[in-house]
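SAMPLE LOG
Freezer: B-3
Tube label: C17
Construct: single chain, 141 aa
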Amino acid sequence: MTCLRISFLLAICVWSTGCNQDLGGDTDMESPQDMTMPADMTATLKGSCDLRKNSPASQECRDYESTSTQFISTYKGTCTNAAAWQDALCNRSGALGGCRTMIPNLGGGTLTQWYFAQSGLMTQSDVQAKCTSAGQMFVAP
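STRUCTURE (predicted):
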């Protein structure tokens, strides 16, 4: 009878230890891992090329938005040669308006060109006309 009790207790110990091993021990009680898409794969990346920094005569700032890092890095590379890049959208204080267009290459994204009074365009209507003639969508500041 004593052997039977010892065997029974031993079986319970082995079984309970086996359960912890099968379930991963205490780690099963932790929060489950987030299985959603990583943020960098779904987030909209933003950057701007401020042409006003190096060329006061060119009163334009360009916003680039995309979920593609290739799209943003390509335009960042071309901007740093001619103007000032920042990893944020343009400061639109004093803007008359902007012209937005979709760019399908490099993973796709949008370009919004913001115009200011010193760019030769004097009113919001001037910017709207420029957008329309270029087949772009007008965006109010």
